[in-house]
Design brief:
Blueprint: E1 21-26, H1 29-37, H2 39-42, E2 47-50, E3 58-61, H3 76-82, E4 87-89, H4 93-107, E5 114-118, E6 121-125, H5 136-151, E7 155-160, H6 163-170, E8 178-180, H7 186-191, H8 203-211, H9 217-222, H10 225-232, H11 234-243, E9 259-270, H12 273-293, E10 296-307, E11 312-323, H13 326-338, E12 347-359
Helix pairs in contact: 4-5, 10-11, 12-13
Length: about 375
C-alpha cells in the first residue's frame, strides 16, 4: 500500500500523545497448528479445518486452499467443489485453546491491556508498554518474532491510533505481514477503504449506502452525520466516528461477553421453513464454534429474523442447563422457528445468539429442554 508501511520500515510513532493500538491476528491459526503437528499429512497442502461435506462448514482454510476460493464459514460441499484436492481435518479445540494461551502469555509480556477477540486474534494497547520504547511498530515486530520463535506460527499485525484502523491494517499484508498506519496517515488510510470494510456494514447496508452514493471511506467522511443518522439510525453515528478517525474505544482486557452469536444476510428472500432451517444449520455451527473459542456455554437462545422490508423480530427461550453443541442449538432453533408458526413473511436475514453465559468449568451436566412461555 502506497503511503503506508506494510513491513513497518517507515511506520515510526511520531505523535507523542497518540494511542498505539496493535491488532495481532494469527494466520489461518487452526490450519497452521495441524500442518505443524502433522507435517507428513498436511504441510504444504490445501486443508480445511471443520466439518466434512455435505453438511459441514469450513472453520479455517490453509493458505494453500485459499487461491481456489476456499474460506472460513463456507459450506464444506462448496469448498470441496472448488478445490478437489482439499483435505478436511476435524478440529481439535482443546489443542487450539492451549496454543492460544501460549500466545497470550507472549502478548502480556508487553502490556496487561490485551483484549482477546477469539482464540486467534487480540487487541493490545501499547501506549505505555511494560518494557522498551512506546513504539507500536517495534512492539508488533517483536511480538511476531517471538510468536514464531516459540510456537512456529506466523502472525500478521496492524498498528494504528484506534482499534478500527489497527484491525483493518492487520488484514492488508497477510500472511506474516505488518502494516503500520501513523496518526497523521489515518484519514487518508480510511478514505481509500471500501465501505464494506467498516464494522457493521454488511451487504444490505452497503447496498443502501451505494444507493446514496457512498462507496468509500472518503464518501463517509464527506457525508453529514445527520444524513447517516437519518438513514441508518444510531449506527450512522458509529460509521461517522470510524470514518473521521475518532475511534477512541478502549482496549478492555476483562471484556465480559454478554452473548455469542452469528447471522447471515441472503441475496434473495427465503419463504419456506425448510429452506430457513438449511440456512440456519451453518449459522448454528458458527455459534457453537465461537462458544468453544470463548470457553462459554449459555442458557438463553434467540432466533433473529429480518423480513424483506427490514422488519426485525426475535424469538427466544431459556433452558435449565447451559448448552453449546450445534445439535442442541439446532433443536431449539427449529422449535423457535416453528412455534407458534413459521414466519408469515419471507426473510432476508437469519441469526442465532446465545446469552446467559457461564464459564465452561461451571457449565456441566446434561441438556434438558424446558421451554418457558
Amino acid at each position: 500500500m502506497s503511503g503506508y508501511a506494510p513491513d513497518g520500515t517507515s511506520g515510526n510513532d511520531t505523535e507523542k500523545d497518540a494511542r498505539r493500538i496493535v491488532h495481532v491476528d494469527m494466520d489461518a491459526f487452526y490450519a497452521q497448528i495441524e500442518q505443524r503437528d502433522f507435517p507428513d499429512r498436511y504441510a504444504g497442502k490445501p486443508i480445511a479445518v471443520g466439518g466434512d461435506p455435505p453438511r459441514g462448514v469450513v472453520q479455517t482454510a490453509s493458505y494453500e486452499a485459499r487461491p481456489y476460493g476456499v474460506h472460513s464459514a463456507q459450506p464444506a460441499v462448496e469448498a470441496d467443489r472448488k478445490c478437489p484436492d482439499l483435505i478436511f481435518v476435524s478440529p481439535r479445540m482443546d489443542v487450539y485453546q492451549e496454543e492460544s494461551k501460549r500466545i497470550r502469555k507472549i502478548l502480556r509480556r508487553y502490556t496487561d491491556l490485551v483484549e482477546p477477540l477469539s482464540l486467534d486474534e487480540a487487541y493490545l494497547d501499547v501506549t505505555e508498554p511494560k518494557t522498551g520504547r512506546p513504539s507500536g511498530t517495534l512492539i508488533a515486530r517483536r511480538l511476531r518474532a517471538e510468536i514464531y520463535e516459540e510456537t512456529g506460527f506466523t502472525a500478521s499485525a496492524g498498528v494504528g491510533p484506534g482499534k478500527f484502523v489497527a484491525k483493518v491494517a492487520s488484514d492488508l499484508d497477510k500472511p506474516d505481514g505488518l502494516t503500520v498506519v501513523r496518526p497523521d496517515e489515518q484519514m487518508e488510510f480510511i478514505a481509500q477503504l471500501p465501505i464494506e470494510k467498516f464494522h457493521g456494514i454488511g451487504p444490505v447496508t452497503a447496498a443502501k449506502m451505494q444507493e446514496l452514493g457512498i462507496q468509500t471511506g472518503a464518501d463517509l467522511q464527506e457525508t453529514p452525520e445527520r444524513t447517516l443518522i437519518h438513514h441508518f439510525g444510531k449506527r450512522g453515528r458509529h460509521f461517522k466516528t470510524l470514518a473521521v478517525g475518532t475511534d477512541d474505544r478502549p482496549v478492555q482486557p476483562d471484556r465480559d461477553r454478554k452473548s455469542v452469536g452469528a447471522e447471515r444476510t441472503f441475496p434473495e428472500d427465503i419463504a419456506r421453513a425448510e429452506t430457513m432451517l438449511e440456512r440456519l444449520s451453518p449459522i448454528a455451527e458458527r455459534v457453537a464454534q465461537r462458544l468453544r473459542q470463548a470457553n462459554r456455554k449459555g442458557r438463553t437462545v434467540t432466533l433473529k429474523l429480518k423480513s424483506h422490508d427490514h422488519q426485525v423480530s426475535t424469538r427466544q427461550t431459556t433452558v435449565d442447563r447451559p448448552l453449546r453443541a450445534e445439535d442442541a442449538l439446532m433443536t431449539i432453533t427449529e422449535r423457535l422457528l416453528r412455534r407458534p408458526h413459521p414466519p408469515d413473511e419471507p426473510v432476508r436475514l437469519l441469526g442465532i445468539s446465545v446469552s446467559s453465559l457461564t464459564e465452561e468449568e461451571r457449565a456441566g451436566g446434561q441438556l434438558e429442554f424446558d421451554f418457558r412461555p
